[in-house]
Amino acid sequence: MGRVALWVAVGAAVALLLLTSATAGVVSSVFGGGGAGGGAAPISASGWARPVVGTAGSGFRTADRPGHDGVDIMAPKGTVIRAASDGVVVRVRCNVGGESWEPTGAPMPCDSDGYPGLGGCGWYADIRHAGDIVSRYCHMVRQPTVTVGQTVIAGQPIGRVGSSGNSSGPHLHYEIHEGGNNAVDPVPFMRQRGVVL
Ligand SMILES: [Zn+2]
Q1: Cα 69 to ligand 1 centre (Å)
Q2: Which of 130, 124, 105, 195 lies closest to 166 in space, CA to CA?
Q3: pTM value?
């Protein structure tokens, strides 16, 4: 009802524009993605968005950390983490010290901050996107707010920044996998899709 009233108010020309440019990315950009207070990330023309607003930390597979399969984005604990693109949640787990569990509803080891050397992604989620691409979001402060099988759109909140698992402080560890389990550097991957991390 509200949307109908709005469309009447803004006039047929705008309504037609919205209808004729009907992709999820365009529509969610027009309506701002619904992010209250946290500054919803703009969605690029190719349908991708920054997963979190923050500053660059460790890079992808650096000389010091050749096994670091993602990039670290430093942000305060509690900062909203958003789906980088439209997709389906395919994994939600707590991963510490070489063990991994699905959420049980009871308190779990990932509810506490971890530390370097503990190992693991902490609370994390994986989202599968078109083209056999999977994005991963690690070290959340609490259980992700999405569940396996849930459809999400670019920019949709999925959890909050924390320091669970193998982590020295609050940040998002962000991975991109292409064609199965092949981790690629998220920085050029995102840049090619119109997003600067
Ligand atoms: Zn990392």
Answers
A1: 7
A2: 124
A3: 0.81
